[in-house]
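Protocol step 4 of 6: structure prediction from sequence.
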Amino acid sequence: MPSPNRPTRADIERRVGSMDQMAGIRPYSVEDGPGRGARALHVHTGSGLEFAALPDRALDILDFRYNGRSLCWHSGVGPASPDRFDPHGKGWLRSFFGGMLTTCGLSNAGAPSEDGGEAFGLHGRISNASASNVRWGAEWAGDDYALWISGETREASALGRRLVLRRHISTAFGSNTVVIEDTVENEGFSEEPFMLLYHVNAGYPLLDEGAIVRIDSEFEGYDEHARAGVAAWNQVEPPESGIPEKVFIHDVRPDADGFAKAELYNPALNLGFRVRWRKAELPNLWQWKMLGDRDYVMGLEPGNCGPGGRAAARVANATGILPPRGFVCHRVELEAFEE
């Protein structure tokens, strides 16, 4: 039942000619630059939350705004089309748009490496693949007006692996939360390792001097730069030219419901962002602190692996394993909040 202060379906329908006035999904396409022709779906919930999903980038999320303020970081690359993808070494960075979510995987997440005679580039291929069977809808369920997008993206090759990511994105009229429900399935007939990282990227003006990262965890610095900055892991300083990126690996304590969370809160704006995920499926959180000029971003990135890449993960027995026709389900929530 709706709350006493929330209008019912009948209340709203008496006052509007179309629900798109209040909340909805609008398809459009990019008309210029490296993403020309790329499809996009703009979602507005009527609560101040707006975001855009990109069907030609595995239904990753580009924009993410709350009451007109951006909560995410854009790299400057733009929503480049998949045909711009360079799979070699660190070529992934040339098409890394940032946004609120870039999905990394499915055969590699983390550093480039070679495993079993096969080269795996930085963060894998899945974000640079187009989704198929893309659908979306906006519909009443009682007094709730649901908004959803779904599609499936494949990482496959002839005579090789056949992995598929089936994604369902949902929110609702009046909501400030986006729910991402993913199923990763091995459509092949041999066992297949898989790696998955949700590269969530918070940016200015939410990310600014005085903001603070809040994570209940045990953690360590991934390399010498991070270890040197452990004392200020949760602090946000102003941009600095030439500053190195720092990565902290967190073992987050889950809540009683099994969900872990990480937050970035800016007290000057009374504005925050929260990512929640099921800890049992995604045991690791990478915190990517990159406070350089133009590259001013705080990554809060749940995943099933560490940053060392496929070869290191296989040695450590730290990849996911999917048997033939096996699958695993993930749920990640992205939320804007005020205190």
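Step 5 (inspection) to follow. The mean pLDDT is 95.
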